[in-house]
Amino acid sequence: MSAPITTRIVWDGIALEITYRKRRWESDFDHIELLAEDRHVLPVTETGYRSHFLPEGIVEGYGGPENFVRAWLDHEAKSPEWLRRKDAARQMSLF
After folding, report:
1. Burial of 41 (C-beta count, 10 Å sphere; 0-12/13-18/19+)
2. What is the pLDDT of residues 7-47, one digit of tens each?
3. 3-state class of 86 per DSSP?
4. What is the pTM of this model?
5. What is the CA radius of gyration of the chain?
6. In a domain, 95, yes or no
7. Structural domain tally of the chain?
8. What CA–CA distance (Å, rounded) separates 14 from 23?
9. Which helix (DSSP H) or strand (DSSP E) does residue 89 occupy?
């Protein structure tokens, strides 16, 4: 197991902390944790936090955790559910 790598990015105006661990618990899986500032909703979590295991090597295939997370979020942000949620958040309520 390697030491965690923690980085910060801004995606779609949302500040995120990414923690990446290769071979978590000496397994064949890597681990990504996302924590959105103010627990902001993301396309991959309604709570602003996400813990995600994936087969070893996928993150490196994207060039590292920052690129992987951006690609993951960009892909999930195309879902109809996320687009509806984003549109609803933009509309103001008069009542």
Report:
1. middle
2. 999 999 999 999 999 876 677 889 999 999 999 999 999 99
3. helix
4. 0.85
5. 15
6. no
7. 1
8. 28
9. helix 80-90
